[in-house]
Amino acid sequence: KPSYRRVLGQLRHWIRRGMDNIKMLDVGCGTGTLTLQCAGLIPQIQHTTGLDMSDNMIAKAQEKTARLGMEKKARFTVGDAENLPFKDNSFDVISCCNSFHHYPHKHRAVAEMFRVLKDGGHLILIDGRRDEPFGYFIFEICVARIEQHVHHCTDKQFHRLLDRAGFVDISQQKFGVCPPALMNIARVKK
User: Fold this and answer.
1) Is the separation of the CB atoms in 80 and 58 below 8 Å?
2) Could you tell me which residues come within 8 angstroms of residue 89 by beta carbon, excluding any fewer than 6 positions away?
């Protein structure tokens, strides 16, 4: 998926700049595809944890992990993005791809991500981009009708959420056409 390629590319960029021995959390991991790609493709990642609210998704992720023999590098847990079951300052990197629109209290999820990141830790948050007419049609009309109770943030809403949580060095990259997406990158100050 294009979002996964973006996450892997961003991780490689940070590694070229000296990041090593990375402990990573993938919030809203689904069946663990991105979590396992990061663990398997990037040697500088010491350990990855995938978190999802769905028991079924986590069970599938654990089956994949066992099948690939990656139990030492990746683990999965059922949990809520708005109340992360981890200690403060636990992770170097957090990714959250294409699940953020499901979170009813987005400010809580972002605050929790900030809490569990180490000083200097990085966040990669990707979701559908609704700021252009085609994106608005896809996400706020089509997806909202099918999935109900979802909301895709505007570019400004994302920036404001990250800023209010305490993140610094916030940047946004638009990518994709069908569907359009937005990658938000931010850091916890050292």
Assistant:
1) no
2) 116, 117, 118, 119
pLDDT in single tens digits along all 190 residues of the chain: 899 999 999 999 999 999 999 999 999 999 999 999 999 999 999 999 999 999 999 999 999 999 999 999 999 999 999 999 999 999 999 999 999 999 999 999 999 999 999 999 999 999 999 888 888 888 888 877 888 788 889 999 999 999 999 999 999 999 988 889 999 999 999 8
**At which residue do the structure tokens 């997806």 appear?**
143
Tell me the CB-side half-sphere exposure of residue 48, using CA atoms within 13 A: 29
Q: Token digits for 160?
A: 């404001």
**Paired strand residues for 189:** none
Which is nearest to 122 in space by CA: 83, 179, 62, 168? 168
Alpha helices in the chain (DSSP H): 2-16, 33-41, 55-68, 106-116, 133-136, 144-147, 155-165
Q: Which of 116, 102, 105, 104 is nearest to 26 (CA)?
A: 116
